[in-house]
Amino acid sequence: MGHALCICSRGTITIENKRYYFIQKLDEGGFSYVDLVEGAQDGRFYALKRILCHDREGRSEAQQEVEMHRLISHPNVLSLTAHTFVDKGAKCEAWLLLPFIRKGSLWSELEKLRDKNSVMPESRILHIFQGICTGLQAIHDKGYAHRDLKPTNVLLDEGDRPLLMDLGSMNRARIEVKGSREAMTVQDWAAQRCTISYRAPELFSVESHCIIDERTDIWSLGCVLYSMMMLEGPFDLIFQKGDSVALAVQNTVTLPESCRYSQGLQNLLTSIMVANPQERPDIYWVLNQLKHLQPTDTVQDTSMV
């Protein structure tokens, strides 16, 4: 794991016996910060994710995120370069060194298109979506689920290759719920770790005796596909207005009549976004359907009329 040393006056840190220079802050969340750092030896840029661990449980969760990165090695899942834990009295910080993807997230790309009053070409949607599905398959093949798939957790490199990130909510794919107490535990966990507007219907009101499986990711995957087609998630506006997302996800998701994408792509979306998890397909079915969709540029990345 290596030792960590912070020399604040020089803005230098050491992780696993390698030095990195602090460049600037990139992002800030509830319990984590992301900084841009430069490797002293290789001159490459990295994203340093610092997770604040207030207790043993927090440290255990950060360690779980490290383990998930170690478990999943795939071109469409963000890799972990190095990590360490920095003790700060009764608390500690987990430092995760990750590749810096300059282009940013899928969400930032959708925001740029929205600002230009443009749309994403169908061929580009299929290319990005294929990569997201392939990365998700790698996670499911290991018996895990991502649980917080959304456009902000998908990075795009310069070649538009998507990389799934933020593995902190990952856990075993199949969760067997036995009784109302366990159901409430799962429900409370989902409320904290699964973004509300991309959360699967079965996680809003967990049944007392059921099995939650990796098809929660398939619902979120559908929301991501919808966001690429419409430049916003299907439930983003409902959440922003303060209306009930829990009620909205029980209804059939439909695309507006003005949608200009192929019927095949629209059919794929509605096949994925099925409220009943038992009727929802798995990732292998989705990938198989993608084989039958031919890239088309009928919807161009130009200003909309």
Q: What labels describe this entry?
A:
alpha+beta, disordered C terminus, 7-stranded antiparallel sheet, two-stranded antiparallel sheet, Phosphorylase Kinase, domain 1, Transferase(Phosphotransferase), domain 1, 2 domains, 305 residues, 34% helix
Explain what this protein looks like in three dimensions.
- One of its GO terms (molecular function) is ATP binding.
- InterPro entries: Kinase-like_dom_sf, Prot_kinase_dom, Ser/Thr-specific_kinases, Ser/Thr_kinase_AS.
- Its EC number is 2.7.11.1.
- It holds the Pfam family Pkinase.
- Keywords: ATP-binding, Kinase, Nucleotide-binding, Serine/threonine-protein kinase, Transferase.
- The protein has 305 residues and is an alpha+beta fold.
- The protein folds into 2 domains: 5-99, 2-Layer Sandwich (Phosphorylase Kinase, domain 1), CATH 3.30.200.20; 106-291, Transferase(Phosphotransferase), domain 1 (Orthogonal Bundle).
- 34% of the residues lie in helices and 23% in strands.
- The protein is built from 9 helices and 13 strands.
- Helix 3 packs antiparallel against helix 5 (215-230) and helix 3 runs antiparallel to helix 9.
- The radius of gyration is 20 Å and the shape is globular.
